[in-house]
Amino acid sequence: MLAGIVWQVVTLIVFAALAGDYFLRVYRSRSTQTPSAIAILHTTRFKFFFAGLVLAFLGVAIRCIYRIAELAGGWGNDIMQNETEFIVLEGVLIVVAVLCLTAFHPGYCFPPMQQRQEASANGIIQKEKFDSSETANQVGQA
Asked: CA–CA distance from 1 to each of 5, 7, 11, 15, 113 (Å)?
């Protein structure tokens, strides 16, 4: 059980390093980005999305590190016996992470992406209707 949580923290650290590298590269190459991409980076919605993502990540990472300390001492250690710390570091941090990811969902923070996805979904639905009616005509002719 402890090895799984340690592995989760390791993967979170790798993710943080890769995400940090990506955002640093995007920031450094902002002069080569399209005007629409630059406009999105400066919107309040993007800033809230980014802050929510960072806050959710930190909440999950802190929770996992707490779990390592909690389980490393065995089932009877003092950390595991402290209910207040457990509620705050286990439950509240996850609730905050979920609320951040829900409130600052990409569909809300990036309306152009949502509109493209909806248009794409409508095209797929219409294509499926066309394909099924075409198949029905072929079956009726046979």
From this structure: 7, 10, 16, 21, 39
pLDDT exceeds cutoff 60 at 129: no
Helix axis angle for 2-28 and 44-72, nearest 10°, is 150
The angle formed by the CA atoms of residues 89, 92 and 98, to the nearest 5 degrees, is: 120
What does pTM read for this prediction? 0.71
Task: Using CB atoms within 10 Å of the CB of residue 93, give its burial: 0 to 12 exposed, 13 to 18 middle, 19+ buried.
Answer: buried
Contact between 127 and 135 under an 8 Å Cβ cutoff? The reply is no
Structure tokens at 35: 């005007």
Tokens 């209707």 found at: 129
What is the distance between the terminal CA atoms of the chain, rounded to a whole angstrom?
Answer: 61
What confidence tens digit (pLDDT) does each residue in 110-128 have? Answer: 776 666 666 666 665 555 4
